[in-house]
Amino acid sequence: MDRTLRAANDPGPRDEGARARSQGAARVALVLALALLGLWILHGFLPALVWAVILAIALGPLYARAERRWPPSGHNILLPALATLVVALVFLAPLVVLGVQAGREAHDVLDFLRSAETNGIPVPDVLQRLPFGAAQATAWWTENLSHPEAGSALLHRLDNSSVIGLSRNFGREVVRRAVLFGFTLVALFFLFRDGRAVASQVLVACNRLFGPRGERVARQMVASIHGTVDGLVLVGLGEGVLLGVVYYFAGVPHPVLLGALTAIAAMIPFGAPLVFGIAALVLLAGGSVMPAIVVVAAGLVVTFVADHFVRPALIGGTTKLPFLWVLLGILGGVETFGLLGLFLGPAVMAALMLLWREFTENPAEDRSEHAA
């Protein structure tokens, strides 16, 4: 009788297997639900976390060299704090310079607006130097913009409510960006401090979830971020420095400011011509034709060498990715994710290319992994 009851209560192998499968499905559902909930909670701060990861990966070799020079001790706070402070200064110092320069320019803009409201907008000299249509353009400007009534009417078209609304939106956006930048620095500090442990855990997780291929994909994405930083950021800074020197000797107003803008625009493919084109137009407006031609010629040469020789070697050599896919990854990433796409786009393309190569070139490895 007791043996019959125990046999009835003890689950058989088939019941144990069904229970294990149901528990596994429940665990997967719980993990997915928690992951989605965590992403929903953190969605406002995900850009800050992604920027922190990108900066940690890009600066990883320099930080590792600093760690070898000054080994961490105790709670390991000083070196990560100093590295984070340096990163903050690198980003904030140019913004302060740009803010000071913008404040100075705002005074000149206000003087121009007051003069336009009182005396109208004078005819620029560049209209009188046009190779054709100079007389017609000058006559139209004199008739429509050179008298006080035209300047006053132009200024009164600016609705005060729209200007106030624009200022509020701009201030709200500045506050939001500042908060995200602060969280980026906080996350970067912890990545500097615990970077090795985090990297080891990520590789172990990729290996357990996807096997050796997952670890290779993770390493390839990290390598692509390194190559993208070298090919976009460093090359863009080099273009900005070279063209800033050209601006200075060509007599372009505010050459340092325009050089910084060129460096930022050069990080995006085909962005630098917009800035040195504006510099050339400024020179043309002042009657300096030959310096404007020099600026355009120098800009075309510098961007041609950088985009066709230096960047493909740096990015394509590191990611083992044809430059066409690098370019498509950058442009598509910028359109989808904004500035983050500069680094996420090539990383995703490099991972997809690695998977494609392994899928088409290593069928034996696929069969062995499937059998395992």
Automatic annotation (TrEMBL):
Disordered: region residues: 1-20
Subcellular location: Membrane
Principal subcellular localization: membrane
Topology versus the membrane: Multi-pass membrane protein
A GO cellular component annotation in the UniProt record: membrane
Alphabetically ordered keywords of this record: Membrane, Transmembrane, Transmembrane helix
Short name of one Pfam family: AI-2E_transport
InterPro entries according to UniProt: AI-2E-like
Listed transmembrane segments: 24-42, 77-100, 174-192, 229-250, 256-285, 292-310, 322-355
Xref: PANTHER family: BLR8064 PROTEIN, TRANSMEMBRANE PROTEIN
Family: Belongs to the autoinducer-2 exporter (AI-2E) (TC 2.A.86) family.
This protein's name: AI-2E family transporter
Organism of this sequence: Methylobacterium soli
